[in-house]
Design goal:
By secondary structure, the protein is α/β, with parallel strands linked by helices. It contains 18 helices and 27 strands. The strands form seven sheets. Strands 6-5-3-4-7-8 form a six-stranded mixed beta sheet, sandwiched between helices. Strands 16-15-17-18-19 form a five-stranded antiparallel beta sheet, with no helix packed on it. The chain is globular.
Length: 630
């Protein structure tokens, strides 16, 4: 039985089970709309249980740092009392830049208890950091002190003169090798009580609990407001759909500045009294941890398999050998980018764990849809809506205004409604048009809903490029390449990739007498783009840029072209050199995009061999394809 709700967990096999739950008003299921109450209950339920186990080296056989729930509660209360003494109120942000360590959780809990927790990607460039600091109007900043291999404190020092003097900047010794500085967090907190809060706070359901920035690790980050209502509801809903219990042991391997880390590996886990294992301060970016992934499961009896599609793709090719992974539950969920069906099936075959795809965003407080744990996952779909949340697809005009709702299996823009949807961005300039007149959030994604209520994503109206879980705003590539003196027009889009799902590429139209080459433009972009994940892998030079009716680069055409180039290259690497094949990539009424391989007829045995070779190569991709013989 989970700590998060009173009723027993019923099977979730399909939409009818979700609708049956909804016969009980949500208000009768929610015992509190203050996320701090959920967290407090989780921490106090098992005071002597290990809340967090941290393995700094990424090797499960080496030194561990352990924090019990009692210790976590005590330290977070003490730090919260410090924050309160520094003037933090319910309307003030506590902004922090920390890798994933036990102290990260202490600061997160203290920030939530006192004001608004604002977790920032510590890998951002200084210019982006100061933009977020100013947008958040933070009262306190907590950053990891000088540490070999990290430049967090150095970046804070480089922008110190731009930080308002009213902001308290504190350092934290998050790792053993971190140097102590003036204004050390724990030294300042030592004089405050650690048993309980020294202040009283009354939380309303629609009060903001956290600012989490969208945009992933690149682009212009936007701070999303997330409410106590949303977090409280999601504690209940996610526990229901995953049947969480306090016996669960989970990885904290996602970045904590990502909503899947902040909520799924943070708020949800602690509210449920689960045990958290941090396999490295940098999570799945740590090659040592990834090499020891199955050993971690064996050593710590991890119950829930974890990883973005890129991680799962790596794991599918490196199955467990002698490790005992019998502690794993029979299902897991993943999201952020479409997972190739073959990878999902391989994971299930080598682990016995079904992969349930999800659909979510920072703006929804993580997932809003998920494959049913007890029903057909319908591989390739994003699953069913969460209880008490809704999605629909609609046809919109050029301004995004709904004209009509879509029919079954008709592609349209995906709209979201529910208790966990953001009330908007911190900066109001981003809020124009994000909600329909009747209050539905415009996701900017394209998809269809089938007769069973499953959501199938077919594209993205927003043009965001998702590289291995990192959301890349194409504008950062475009703005950089526009500064090149020979570039007249530029558009950045994605191309399919077997490892990362998508990679960024750019198309350019040059000045008439330009002698710039693709390689030179790739190097130029790499040198000038602040976040290397956004640097385009290829820059394609076009004689004339295809444009829409309003004179903008036609990104739909360019995405189809980049996919054609990618799959043409794949076939050149895969098939015999003398194979006659034509590759086309077109929009499709049901699947969004269809890759067609047209081959000249050959002997039946050779034909079968070629088909099998193509099918094997395409298993690493989420794209739908067909083979046509002329």
């Amino acid at each position: 039985m989970s700590l998060l709700f009173k009723e027993s967990q019923q099977p979730i096999r399909g939409l009818s089970d979700i609708k049956a739950m909804e016969k009980t008003p949500l208000s009768e299921r929610m015992w509190s709309m203050d996320v701090n109450a959920w967290l407090d209950k989780g921490m106090k339920a098992f005071p002597h249980k290990n809340a967090i186990t941290f393995v700094p080296s990424g090797n499960p056989d080496q030194q561990q740092v352990v924090l019990t729930y009692q210790e976590l509660h005590s330290k977070s209360r003490q730090v919260a009392n410090l924050f309160h003494s520094l003037g933090v109120t319910s309307k003030d942000a506590v902004l922090y830049l920390l890798p994933t360590t036990p102290d990260h959780y202490v600061v997160m809990l203290a920030g939530l208890a006192t004001g608004i927790a604002c977790c920032i990607n510590w890998m951002l460039k200084p210019a982006q950091l100061i933009e977020l600091i100013k947008s958040s109007k933070a009262r306190v900043i907590v950053a990891m002190g000088p540490t070999p291999g990290f430049d967090i404190w150095e970046k804070i020092e480089s922008i110190r003169s731009d930080i308002p003097s009213s902001v308290h900047v504190l350092s934290l010794q998050a790792l053993a090798e971190t140097q102590k500085t003036n204004n050390d967090l724990y030294e300042m907190a030592n004089s405050y009580s650690n048993g309980q809060l020294d202040f009283k706070r009354t939380v309303q359901p629609d009060d903001v609990a956290a600012y989490i920035h969208s945009g992933g690790t690149t682009g212009s980050p936007k701070l999303v407001q997330l409410t106590h209502r949303g977090f409280s509801y999601k504690c209940w809903a996610n526990s229901i759909v995953m049947a969480h219990t306090p016996d669960d042991v989970i990885f904290s391997d996602y970045p904590m500045f990502h909503i899947a880390g902040f909520f799924g590996r943070g708020v949800l886990a602690l509210a449920g009294g689960m045990s958290i294992v941090i396999p490295s301060a940098i999570g799945a970016r740590d090659k040592t941890f990834m090499a020891n992934y199955w050993k971690f499961i064996d050593r710590f009896k991890i119950t829930i398999l974890s990883g973005v599609p890129t991680t799962l793709s790596v794991l599918s090719k490196n199955p467990p050998t002698t490790e005992n992974i019998s502690s794993l539950r029979p299902y897991m969920c993943t999201g952020s980018t479409s997972l190739p069906v073959e990878v999902a099936k391989t994971i299930e075959r080598i682990t016995g764990v079904r992969v349930l795809l999800t659909y979510g965003a920072t703006e929804y407080t993580q997932n809003i849809a998920q494959g049913p744990r007890d029903g057909d996952p319908k591989y390739g779909s994003a699953g069913l809506r969460l209880p008490y949340s809704q999605f629909k697809t609609a046809i919109t005009d050029a301004e995004g205004v709904i004209q009509r709702e879509c029919m079954i299996d008709e592609i349209g823009t995906v709209f979201i409604q529910g208790p966990s949807v953001t009330p908007g961005y911190v900066d109001p300039i981003y809020n124009d048009g994000i909600f329909s007149k009747d209050g539905w959030f415009n996701s900017g994604d394209l998809g269809r809903i089938d007769a069973d209520g499953y959501l199938w994503l077919t594209g993205r109206a927003k043009d965001v490029i998702i590289r291995g879980g990192h959301n890349i705003d194409p504008s950062i590539i475009e703005e950089t390449l526009r500064t090149h003196p020979d570039v007249v027009l530029v558009a950045a889009v994605s191309k399919p990739d077997a490892h990362s799902g998508e990679l960024p590429v750019a198309y350019v139209q040059l000045t008439p007498r330009s002698k710039a080459t693709s390689a030179q433009l790739v190097d130029f972009a790499k040198e000038h783009i602040t976040e290397q994940a956004a640097a385009p892998k290829d820059v394609y030079i076009l004689e004339t840029m295809p444009l829409t009716d309003v004179g903008k680069p036609h990104k739909t055409q360019l995405r189809l072209d980049s996919a054609k180039r990618a799959f043409t290259d794949l076939m050149k690497q895969t098939l015999p050199a003398d194979t006659s094949i034509e590759v086309t990539v077109q929009q499709h009424a049901t699947h969004g995009v269809m890759v067609s391989y047209k081959l000249k007829a050959v002997a039946s045995k050779d034909q079968s061999d070629l088909e099998n070779t193509i099918k094997t190569a395409m298993k690493a991709y989420a794209s739908h394809f067909e083979i046509i013989w002329n």
